[in-house]
Amino acid sequence: MSTVLNKKYYLSKDVVKLAKDLIGKVIHTNIDGVLTSAIITETEAYAGITDKASHAYGGRRTQRTEVMYSEGGIAYVYLCYGMHYLFNIVTNKKDIPHAVLIRGIYPLKGIETMLQRAHKNKLTKDIGKGPGKVTKLLGIDKRHNAISLLDNTIWLSDENINIKKNAIIVSKRIGIDYAGEDALLPYRFSVNDEGLINSINK
DNA sequence: CGTACGATCTGCT
DNA sequence: GCAGATCGTACGA
């Protein structure tokens, strides 16, 4: 049985717990006329105005970060290093800029399309490892910034994929050395390859 | 208006 | 392991 993640889910007050819970959930996109879906294998939490690694640190509100202050359940997509789109899920209630960055996925449906988008000819374990690759495979770009995740373009579901607790790795976040001591926070969650394969093959 | 740089990936060494 | 690609955003002048 499959359940689409609803508004209540995204309104969770605990962004770190949510980031962990999203491991093993399924993300679907209906973009450019193609349906794709993939298991979420890696996430990072960005905990609002007190988190130095967050774009909303210190309560910063700009045209770009305004999206993060919306009510949970929408997408925050932005360009990084001038060439990669990064996909985040905005969580918590309005005016609390929490978000979860999706850093890794593993393709389930629409694999042919994803291979084309990645310019690859075969499926590998690491095809969806890395936040820039996630958006590339799923076809997400800045057009999808601020869209609802309760609609039929991008949405998430719980397919009862059972990831063993001990297959989830908790670590510090990546690429945020500028965040001082907050760079050390255990806000990154990922499932190891073995745990992932075990969950898919049943 | 100018400028510095980033929640990265790839290919070459 | 490292440099290069490449550009919107943020912020100071």
Sum this structure up briefly.
This protein is of the alpha+beta class. The protein is built from five helices and nine strands; from the N terminus they run E-H-H-E-E-E-E-E-H-H-E-E-E-H. It has a single domain, classed as 3-methyladenine DNA Glycosylase, Chain A, CATH 3.10.300.
Describe the protein in words:
With 202 residues, the protein is α+β, with helices and mostly antiparallel strands. The protein has one domain: Methylpurine-DNA glycosylase (MPG) (3-methyladenine DNA Glycosylase, Chain A, Roll), CATH 3.10.300.10. The chain is 17% helix and 30% strand. It contains five helices and nine strands. Strands 1, 2, 3, 4, 5, 6, 7, 8 and 9 form a nine-stranded antiparallel beta sheet that branches. Helix 3 packs across helix 4. The chain binds a DNA duplex (13 and 13 nucleotides) through residues 44, 46, 53-55, 60, 62-64, 78-84, 86, 88, 101, 103, 130-133, 142, 173-176, 178-179.
Protein topology:
Blueprint: E1 3-4, H1 7-10, H2 15-21, E2 26-31, E3 34-47, E4 75-80, E5 84-91, E6 98-109, H3 111-118, H4 131-138, E7 154-158, E8 168-171, E9 188-191, H5 193-200
Antiparallel strand pairs: 1-7, 2-3, 2-7, 3-6, 3-9, 4-5, 5-6, 8-9
Helix pairs in contact: 3-4
The structure holds a DNA duplex (13 and 13 nucleotides).
